Amino acid sequence: MTRFFQVLSLALAAGLFAVLTAAGARAQSEIAPGTPGSEETPLRVMLVPTDGGTEDGTRADFAPIFNAVSRTTGLQFEIRVGQSYASVVEGMVNGLVDIAFVGPTLYLQAAARGAAEPLAVAVLNGESVYYAAFFARNGFELKQLGDMKGRSMAFGDVNSSSSFTIQVGMLIEAGVDPARDLSRVFLTGGHANSLNALAQGHVDVSAASLNSYQKAVNEGAIDAAKIVPVAVSVPIPYPPFIMLPSLPGDVKARLRAGFDTVHEDPAITPEMIRGFGGILVDRYSSDITHETFEAVQRMLDLVTPEVKGEMLKKASEN
């Protein structure tokens, strides 16, 4: 009997420990009413518009990720899609958005105004990078970027890293003044529109990300045998999730932990973990700092407000 009661006591103790642990976990996940991330005050998320996609499609790409973070942290979210690149930054600056998914250029713009700090970034094959590129019709001869002089070119949004900032910086580094040396400039508003302008024969060259190009090829929007990359950038830091610096420290810690474990959620399949443009990624990591974006900052410094203004003026002449 003594042995029986010893075993029973151990079992009861283990059971009590399990109950207390579960209760502790639930308490850890509970968010005080009125706190950012509570049911009454969900964290406001804004996603940069996805090229070629709908608002519902963009929301659907990221909903599984936020559902997983919510399950592990108890945080609640309200997800919206911005009407433009600029609207996302202004939402952060004006305190109307708590979390955003943006390109590196937008992050740097928001950070410079004290409205953003890095939260998490997608990881694919052990890396958190993507590429900007110039595209042309197959057979286009380009020995160096200086050969772009005299050509017509389509860009995406002026606040986009991989359909504007990086390519304009590359041209400037090659001695090409985009506003003066290109025959015509088109600002199409997005990667997909830039690629489409090329496919329709309206321009000689287009600027977009390799991700957007691959997505357009996969969806049959462009023919990879006819439209090809002719110059590719160095690796660019992947578009990050960013958050307001003013969020409570506990909320920030929960967010980072939640994103770090998204891929471990039993309810998440690999097909649910997506990044920029709906591209499948392996996981998300909060191991990201402001210094990660130094290379983009260098390009951003080249693409001054004066350069943007001259290109906008050039584009208005079409």
What does this structure look like?
This protein has 318 residues and is α/β, with parallel strands linked by helices. The chain has two domains: 134 residues, 3-Layer(aba) Sandwich (D-Maltodextrin-Binding Protein, domain 2), CATH 3.40.190; 121 residues, 3-Layer(aba) Sandwich (D-Maltodextrin-Binding Protein, domain 2), CATH 3.40.190.10. The protein contains eleven helices and 13 strands. The chain has a six-stranded mixed β-sheet, with helices on both faces. It has a five-stranded mixed β-sheet with strand order 8-7-9-6-10. A two-stranded antiparallel ribbon has the order 5-11. Helix 2 packs across helix 9. The radius of gyration is 23 Å and the shape is globular. It starts with a helix and ends with a helix.
Side by side, the strands of the main sheet go 2-1-3-12-4-13
| CATH topology description of the largest domain | D-Maltodextrin-Binding Protein, domain 2
Q: Please tally the helical runs, counting DSSP H or I stretches of 4 or more residues.
A: 11
Largest sheet: 6 strands, mixed
What kind of oligomer do you see?
single chain
The H-and-E topology, N to C, reads as: HEHEHEHEEEEHHEHEHEEEHEHH
What structural class do you assign from the helix and strand content? alpha/beta
Architecture (CATH level 2) name of the largest domain: 3-Layer(aba) Sandwich
The residue ranges in which pLDDT falls below 50 over 5 or more consecutive positions are 1-28
On the 0-100 scale, what is the average pLDDT?
88
CATH homologous superfamily classification of the largest domain? Periplasmic binding protein-like II
Task: Compute the number of strand runs.
Answer: 13
> Shape from CA axes?
globular
Number of domains: 2
Helical content (DSSP H or I, runs of 4+): 40-55%
Rounded Rg: 23 Å
Cα separation of the termini? 94 Å
Overall CATH class of the largest domain: Alpha Beta
